[in-house]
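Run RNA polymerase sigma factor SigI through structure prediction, thanks.
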Amino acid sequence: MVQTDQDIRQAVYAAQQDTEAADALIRQYLPFIRAETVRFTHEAIERGHEDALSIAMFAFYESILHYQAGRGAFLPFAARNIRNRLIDQARAERRHRGHLSLHAPVGAEEDGELADTLADPDDAPAALEHRLASRQEIEEFGRKLAGFGLSYSDVADNCPKQARTLAACRRVLAYARANPALLEKLEQTGRLPMQQLADATGVERKTLERHRKYLVAILLAFTNGYEIIRGHLCQLDPRERRDGE
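Sure, done. The structure for RNA polymerase sigma factor SigI is below.
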């Protein structure tokens, strides 16, 4: 395994330019990703937290894409990103399913857990049901994306990296969601009416073209009732990054 910070940094930079190198780096650091997941769940991955590991792996990949030298050493940066995504998932579970994870952070500083104050074994069936629903929805949405020639990694790669661009994409999404005929056209043809979107929102067409995959994925999630997926896709927002795209 890569040892020095400089070696890791160079490996990350290479992975930013090559998806095969990124996949190799994820495989290489899978023990690290698993360890960070277990640190959050406080249980072995095999005990029903496979979905958490999937989120952690995605967060690690996102960390590769967004890493810059000014952020310090890569592994602590990736660890923070993994924890943030797992926290987001716990919150999404509570919001969309009404299920409280026993290991969800609580308190003003979020340094405690719900299990510290309440333990209810009756939650186990609900937790299992949610995990199964999550896995089923992820697989189903993956097939939906494939029908449009997209994959999850395509969407992650295509996310806006500047606050200004993200705001522009959100204007486009808001307009599209307010116009059902446009969404129906997307479903029927597999294409976004770029010129219509540009004229209606004032967003440059080249910006729309650049982030087409991201826009299509978000709209597909919102038009097909993928509640869990919607939460994850809307989190694909490098909120801390403000420089070059």
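The two ends are 30 Å apart (CA to CA).
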